[in-house]
Inverse folding.
């Protein structure tokens, strides 16, 4: 039984990353009806920005400019990285997607792939191919509860992710901007006629999605402290699967499906040989999609929607 | 308008031809090209960097001596360094390019087995001598007369670690965690399992878990390993995965020993892993702390030049380049016909006996594998790789 709970903890941590990244895919999709394939690489960029911020703050503290406790550095790192990465998201929207808003969807989709490659290789050119070790801002503390091991980092990852998801949910449901976003996702032709500009809402969506990815990136750096320029590809693809599984465009669906995917991967390894993990895990996803082709929370749509 | 366009096109086309001629890989009799097929980017860039530095130091020595003397004539040597991005397909195209376009006499690398196995096939087909300094998988040189290596084999390394753990700790139950998508960890995991089960009977490897390249979360595999009751973990992985796995194992409450293979040898392992890796053992080609003689001279020079202690890849690349140098020198003469010369170099290399390298004495077997000793290293409390024990075949 302890083994089971240990894996629940493992899955919660791993699923948090999928969920945070899947949110970005889902948000952009619900507004612009396209998947931003650069999102995995924005996550990577967020992680690197977090690395820069954390190292910079640590440097300032050790050289005596001001003194901050390490937990505060961590909080600041997350906030500053989210802030900076949101501008990257806005930039991607502005130069990658806005000029192609009326172009065929396929062109917009490959734009995302190209921006992703530019971010990866740009990073490679800028920082070189060496791995960076994310600074450990908090000491790992391991707690044992009846044979189940939990670290403070795992708790942090899960709590911060859940907190951000709740905040996003409140934002979308309670604020004026959130209402504008929901209206835009409902109809992207008529709503601009009511005075809500797509040129405001689209960058906003990219900014929020990228900020969440950056938070994910910093947490990822803390949990898995080896960064490389291609770290966003695989996790980006899998989070994309989660976004589809949640129902295209459904924001909370994507978050739930992210956790579900984490649970599937971890528990498949628990039961079957680990060699077969992805094979079995993604076969399960395929079966789910066969029975629920629109995902868990997606609505069937008709041809009048712009695809 | 049309005429102008035509004229511009013509001039441009002519220019292209001109560039082509001036940059063509001229077959100069006075220059020997040696290719390096190494991972400068990709999963293990540090390995590529070490190889490049070792190559540059070797070239520096040669240039100081005025060149390479073969049969009374002195030849200039040029290194053609190409990046294989740590990918199998790129390693194949790099090998093909080096042989067919650059006209190299011999190739050093690729380093890891994932690239060395397919690139070895290309070199053997083109009959161009290749020496992989670091690839320990048997398939690299098997039935390939033109392919050599500078290190021991996984079929040697696996039993070495199995015997070491048995004698040192007296353990009976082993766990293995490896990357199923990469030739080196997969091959080594299999050799280790075989050797361990030979010592302790079938079923003594109580957990045999895997993941795929680029994975970063190993919590479920590690939970399984902890539950299996294994007494130690064998981890034949590279420096980009070792820190994550060791740290995650400790976070899940694992306090038993973790032992590794020669792929741990990079200085990055300890840099990225920190205190979590202290006290671990691994099998490697040489130990930098406490080295003597020519080995020490190499280490000091490398450290002064590049600012860190060279890893095993640098030392093995250095030795491999000297093996090539010795083979070329003992050819007697070079004809200038690249195919004939390649064969002569290959034959000379196969005859090398008791070559005294900085990673030990080497004699090639018929397969092109050297017979040499392995070193067991313990990571000290200061993060140094300390010599612990030497194991000879």
């Amino acid at each position: 039984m302890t083994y089971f709970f240990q894996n629940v903890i493992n899955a919660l941590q791993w699923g948090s990353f999928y969920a945070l990244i899947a949110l970005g895919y889902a948000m952009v999709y619900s507004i612009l009806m396209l998947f931003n394939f650069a999102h995995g690489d924005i996550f990577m960029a967020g992680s690197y920005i977090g690395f820069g911020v954390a190292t910079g703050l640590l440097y300032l503290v050790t050289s005596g400019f001001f003194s901050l406790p390490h937990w505060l550095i961590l909080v600041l790192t997350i906030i500053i990285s989210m802030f900076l990465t949101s501008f990257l998201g806005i930039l991607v929207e502005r130069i990658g997607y806005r000029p192609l808003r009326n172009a065929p969807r396929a062109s917009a989709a490959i734009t995302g792939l190209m921006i992703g490659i530019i971010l990866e290789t740009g990073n490679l050119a800028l920082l070189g191919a060496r791995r960076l070790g994310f600074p450990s801002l908090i000491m790992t503390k391991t707690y044992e509860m009846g044979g189940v091991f939990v670290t403070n980092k795992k708790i942090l990852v899960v709590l911060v992710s859940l907190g951000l998801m709740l905040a996003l949910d409140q934002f979308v449901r309670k604020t004026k901007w959130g209402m504008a976003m929901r209206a835009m996702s409902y109809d992207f032709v008529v709503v601009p006629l009511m005075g809500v500009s797509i040129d405001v809402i689209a960058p906003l969506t990219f900014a929020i999605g990228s900020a969440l990815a950056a938070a994910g990136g910093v947490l990822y750096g803390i949990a898995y402290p080896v960064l490389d320029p291609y770290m966003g590809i695989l996790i980006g693809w899998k989070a994309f699967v989660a976004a589809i599984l949640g129902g295209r465009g459904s924001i909370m669906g994507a978050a739930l499906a992210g956790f579900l995917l984490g649970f599937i991967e971890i528990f498949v390894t628990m039961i079957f040989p680990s060699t077969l993990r992805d094979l079995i895990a993604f076969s399960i996803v395929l079966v789910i999609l066969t029975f629920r082709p629109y995902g868990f929370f997606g609505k069937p749509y008709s041809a009048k929607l712009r695809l | 308008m049309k005429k102008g366009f035509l004229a511009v096109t013509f001039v441009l086309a002519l220019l292209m031809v001109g560039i082509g001629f001036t940059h063509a890989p001229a077959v100069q009799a006075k220059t020997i090209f040696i290719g390096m097929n190494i991972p400068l980017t990709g999963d293990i860039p540090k390995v590529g960097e070490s190889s490049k530095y070792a190559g540059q130091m070797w070239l520096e020595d040669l240039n100081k001596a005025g060149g390479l003397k073969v049969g009374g004539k002195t030849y200039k040597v040029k290194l053609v360094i190409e990046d294989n991005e740590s990918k199998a397909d790129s390693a194949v195209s790099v090998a093909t390019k080096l042989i067919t376009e650059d006209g190299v006499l011999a190739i050093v690398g690729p380093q890891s087995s994932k690239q060395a196995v397919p690139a070895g096939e290309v070199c053997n087909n083109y009959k161009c001598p290749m020496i992989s300094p670091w690839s320990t998988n048997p398939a690299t040189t098997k039935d390939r007369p033109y392919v050599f290596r500078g290190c021991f084999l996984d079929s040697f390394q696996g039993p070495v670690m199995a015997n070491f753990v048995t004698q040192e700790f007296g353990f009976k139950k082993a766990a293995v965690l490896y990357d199923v998508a990469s030739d080196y960890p997969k091959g080594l995991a299999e050799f280790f399992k075989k050797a361990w089960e030979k010592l302790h009977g079938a079923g003594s490897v109580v957990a045999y878990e895997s993941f795929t390249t680029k994975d970063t979360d190993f919590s479920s595999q590690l939970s399984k390993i902890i539950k299996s009751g294994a007494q130690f973990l064998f981890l034949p992985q590279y420096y980009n995965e070792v820190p994550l796995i060791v740290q995650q194992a400790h976070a899940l409450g694992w306090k038993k020993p973790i032992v590794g293979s020669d792929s741990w040898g990079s200085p990055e392992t300890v840099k990225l892993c920190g205190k979590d890796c202290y006290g671990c053992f691994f099998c490697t080609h040489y130990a930098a702390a406490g080295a003597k003689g020519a080995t020490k001279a190499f280490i000091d020079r490398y450290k002064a030049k590049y600012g860190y202690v060279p890893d095993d890849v640098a030392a093995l690349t250095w030795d491999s380049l000297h093996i090539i140098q010795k083979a070329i020198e003992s050819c007697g003469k070079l004809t200038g016909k690249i195919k004939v010369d390649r064969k002569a170099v290959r034959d000379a290399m196969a005859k090398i006996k008791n070559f005294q390298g900085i990673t030990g004495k080497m004699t090639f077997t018929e397969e092109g594998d050297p017979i040499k000793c392995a070193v067991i290293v313990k990571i000290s409390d200061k993060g140094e790789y300390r010599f612990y024990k030497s194991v000879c075949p």
Chain A has one domain: 2-291. The beta strands of chain A are 132-133, 142-145, 148-151, 226-227. Residues 2-291 of chain A form a domain with the ABC transporter involved in vitamin B12 uptake, BtuC fold (CATH 1.10.3470).
